[in-house]
Amino acid sequence: MGAGRFCGVHRMSTMFLRTLRDDPADAEVPSHRLLVRAGYIRRAAPGGFSWLPLGYEVFRNVERIVREEMNAAGFQEVHFPALVPKEPYEATNRYEEYGPNVFRVEDRHGAHFLLAPTHEELFTLTVKDLYSSYRDLPLIIYQIQTKFRDEARPRAGLLRTREFLMKDSYSFDVDDAGLQASYDAHRVAYIKLFERMGLPFVIVAATSGAMGGSASEEFLAPLDVGEDTFIRCTSCDYAANVEAVSTPVPDAIPFDDLPPAVVHHTPKTPTIATLVDYVNADPDTRHPERDWTAEDTLKNVVVKLKHPDGTVEPLAVGVEGHRDVDMKRLEAQFAPAEVVPFSDEDFAQHTTLKKGYIGPGVLGSENASGIRYLLDPRIVDGTTWITGADEYDHHVLQLVAGRDFTADGTIEAAEVLDGDICPSCGGTVEIARGIEIGHIFQLGRKYAEALGLTVRDENDQPITPTMGSYGVGVSRCLAAIAEATHDEHGLCWPREIAPADVHIVVAGKDGGPQGPVAETVATELEAAGVRVVLDDRQKTSPGVKFKDAELIGIPTIVVVGRGIADEANPVIEVKDRKTGGREDIAVDALVDHIVARCR
RNA sequence: CGGGGUGUAGCGCAGCUUGGUAGCGCGCCACGUUCGGGACGUGGAGGCCGGGAGUUCAAAUCUCCCCACCCCGACCA
Fold this sequence. Notes:
With about 600 residues, the chain is of the alpha+beta class. About 25% of the residues lie in helices and about 25% in strands. The strands form seven sheets. Strands 4, 8, 9, 10, 11, 12, 13, 22 and 25 form a nine-stranded mixed β-sheet that branches. A six-stranded mixed β-sheet has the order 1-27-26-28-29-30, sandwiched between helices. Helix 2 (about 55-70) packs across helix 11 (about 475-485). The longest helix has 21 residues, at about 175-195. The chain is globular.
């Protein structure tokens, strides 16, 4: 057989590959840095990457795992166009709601298209085209396809791009029980799929954002580089994205015996910190037994809600003074509306609002400002607060909720803090960051209704199916795996993801006996079904080859070196990339040994 | 879109304050020596100094405008 140029063994001497000695300057997070350094990907556009041979192997492996698990779950693969007409998206109002995040294109006739950010509409319309009976349902179909989003800020290499590979599936059921079953089937399939990828993950309660619908959970890889913040309970299994956290509501407190509210002159106290310092220092306001803290204050933040139809509505939110208003959480409550800050010009128009001294006295649709006022759920009747008196340099103490003020409702928008109370068991929660690798939604009938999808039931009456949609970020998973598995030497792939099973290093003089032995070993391994990368580069020192092998991160490294010179017992070194453990294996036993490792 | 930073050889960077013939390391090419942990010597190739305008006898360097990229915030698989 010999060293045929085009046999299945991947040869470093001819592979389209250049590893970099230095970290690329524009890469910050480990996955980005290492994937570029190891020659897997190259940046080709803002938020767009080219896949080089090693990278594309890995890319296909991740895709294959997703496909196999979808098929194993009994879902059917389809493939829709990425370039789609805008009309279906107008019917569901998402052409508007997605706003600047969609790439819009025009054809030569001036017709409008978009590069699909997700495909609910097209799937729904196709089911409408073909199906008309309840007997056709349930149906679950999926695709693995490039998605486009005009991200304001692509970042962190593959973690946030404008073009990415996503698996998206859609379920159609006649009733809620069916939807629940389709949802559960995805949940189970996703658990298998992420376990198989070797990716640590947590499942958290989530909000559905622009997608619409009710129940939704996210699969997060718990890594600090992630952009999502979630909480998990330290004593039970509750976990939630901070956007979806529900705050346990304390019992109301009787307030009949509480002292009346008093307004105090508190000069130069426009912030919580200056206010707390002031009331602790002034004998008139000092607490008899302890120091006041930010937790004793009620902070009122005014923002504007910008609705997709262009209307703008001011909104006031009251939270405990030691917490900020979490704009992400707030926005999640009002999606698809956008939350924008209240500017100085806005303050100028709303003269009842005294910036830095805003209190419940003027807030609320019934009060002077007429601005809708929503409170954090912890601010129950009977709680006592220090808060703004709606007059510059004045605050009010002993202001009691339910007695001295009420709001238009409650809102989940306060910043979630480490040590908060678990809504499920009453324990304490901790905060962590994660990469969103999957998201499952129960959409309900929003899309079917908007697009007129109905089927006939057993009484020949039209019914509207209920839908779910389920996504896995395939290219993002690849980056998440790199994040979760790399070490200081380089990438370190799980075997099923890795671009090959073994990386054979020829460590000897050019023209020495190691070359032919490595060739033979490579050929035999290949024949035994092992995926092989062979570093047969000439004029390359062993040190460079070792470093590259570790950088590239194939799970088993085989070193054909001086060990084969021992005529009585020639050996080849086998090194585990992850553990660093090495052992010498007799040349004759090598293939069997490697095959056993790769199982 | 707001704030911060960076654009000089394929990659990583110096030079800019104080204007005067474009530099270093790695990589690349040739020859030789090396050959188990990013070897060494000798000799080479490679640059519209992000773009445009201006100031000046003279601009990588000073001024203005623009662009791109990275990071932090506002959005999402």
